[in-house]
User: Fold these one by one.
Assistant:
Number 1:
Amino acid sequence: MTNQAAVGEPEANGQQLTANGHTPVRLAYLGPPGTFGEEAARRYAPEADLLPFPSHAAVAAAVESGLADLGVVAIENAINGSVAETLDILIHETTLQIQAEVVLPIEHNLVAKPGTRASDVKVIYSHTQALGQCRRFLERCFPKAQMEAALSTAEAVELALRRDGDAAAISTRRAAELYGAEILATGIGDTANNVTRFIVLGRGKPPSSGRDRTSIAFTFAEDRPGSLAGVLNAFAEANINCTKIESRPTKATFGEYVFLIDFEGHQDDPPIRAVLGRVRPLCADLKVFGSYPRF
């Protein structure tokens, strides 16, 4: 983890729908078409040129290399919590900045080859996140079915359709339409209020909107009592609301962690500049993932 995310590159934000004022933004997402990632990308920039990639890491790499101008990746789900792959990319693999967030309502559907009956289903495919978000339905209605992970909910439909009428997939309605699948059941998620928060990655910092969120990660040089409390107290004394805190392994030493905080405000706002100035000396490394308009 580096001390600072890269700054000073051309700015991109949710209001910018063209890359240079003339051509549509090239917007990368976790494909193929029909995924929730595509839905989030279409919601963020309906006029964008959408580019599917096979993983969140590939989405970030596409933006870094110039294949895409921006990239949409999932970061948090209301049921399963944070998306570890995305957090690790932000911590260890990229200096891209978060430009915006998109909160997408999630409806899971059980789909299959036309003519398939529920009693025929022996295998159910989907992305691991979707399988986890439909756990109760699957345990109750398909206790003997084999669950198989796919790279995306859209790929899950393709895999199910290749079999001889004994498989189903959990996917979006759009994926069912795109690949010619029949919807066997709708709204099969464990909660009716399921949403996923996506972030848009790009170069540069969006300007302050007056209603922003900032995301940071930090580590400590040594494990001692009060280290984390010192950081949190700095935010509390500055009356800055921390909306989320969690940790991830450093991947260097067992028992050492990277701490992540989301808080209200923009990194260029004077109060935020001041608190980050107080916090930085307390940390071994501090990385700002970005400041972006709150949903």
Number 2:
Amino acid sequence: MRIALVIRPFTDENLQTALQMDVKDIVTVLPNAGPVWDYLAILRHKKRIEDQGLRWSVVESVPISDNIKLGLEGRDSEIDNYCQTIRNLGAAGIPVMCYNWMAVFGWMRTSMTTRTRGNALASTYDHSDMENAPPVTDYGDITEERLWENLEYFLKRVIPVAEEAGVKQGLHPDDPPLSPIRGVARIITSPEAYDRVISFIPSEYNGLTYCQGNFKAMGADIPATIHHFKDHIHFAHFRDLHGQVPTFSESFHDDGDSDMAEAVRAYKAIGFKGVIRPDHTPTFAIDQDDVGGYNFLGRLYAVGYMRGLIHGTD
């Protein structure tokens, strides 16, 4: 496995810092992209990364609209745009795309100021805080059946294009993996959901982003599910939690409830050769900016911990 980083903000100084950490793989989007990511713009962004001695390994992510996820008017033209973006990324040699199927709202937390070790600030989701939240009513009934139907439709259009372009598609879990929230169903909430996704189109290009934090929040056995999905993990997020749905808080990578060394052993056992990046870190007292779990100090700490686990496990 290869350690990767999301660079926020995306600056040459931060790219250089990644290289100084001996991280060579970058996970990023194309800045200021339109409905179709232009090939030349992709190429120039890739060269900017490569000219620092790095490589653009994963796109996280090309936005997928509610028109597509909810089967609304205009979805076919938007899927066409997504497919052309896949072709352009493939032509530029970008091998993996991460995407999600969360409609209306994406990643959600009820607090960003939960105190964790040493009073560092962490994020929390507590479903009891959402039980009286007003339901979303703008799109009609957003049921699990509706989301499954539209995801299958999307994949049957997209995966053949991904196969031709050589760009693997990694579906990220819903975060939190809980349904419904404010009346909006979520479907990528369990290992069994991924079995269903893979069954739609059995293909090495139809796979998952294995986000350890979300699998932990599901209550899943981390090493067992890494082994179960060994042929379909295209990309991984390395993070940990205290608790699981309906209530959990994010933790430092060495301070959560999971056995992270066993997770690394599982990746090694399946021969995982892809990239794995630290995700969502608490905010340190000396951080100048709170960027919602993507502060550089937290990721620097996480990279050191990850590298120690990789070197120290067999």
Number 3:
Amino acid sequence: MANKAKKTVSSMSYSMRRLQRRISTIKPSNFVLAGIAIAFAVFLFGGGLYSIIVKPYPAVYYGGRFLFVYPQLIEQFISDSLIAMILYTMGIVGLATMYQSTKYAYKPRQAYLMFLVGVALLIIAYVSVEAIMHYWKGI
């Protein structure tokens, strides 16, 4: 099997072999890999897989108004997923901002402001998720 793969690779033109070599030896940075892992986790936690498989409605016009958040926990709209993903991303950005603020020890004012922005984003995301679960979903 390996010889067959080597034979097909060696029979390619020079530019194709160079492209294949460049693709096979690529090594993304740790920052990119962490970003991809976080994006994948936010997608899963936000209900993206459910939205792909079940294909729910984006929103519903009911009782003279649009419902963007399904009123019960058993189902969800696409906008439910998007809202959840946005709020989770906001919380993660808040955590990352808080972490980045520790790198500015020699500039205490900038570190303090970054820390406050991170805490504010994290609190807004948490309170929003809890409010949606408590008031709109009835949990």
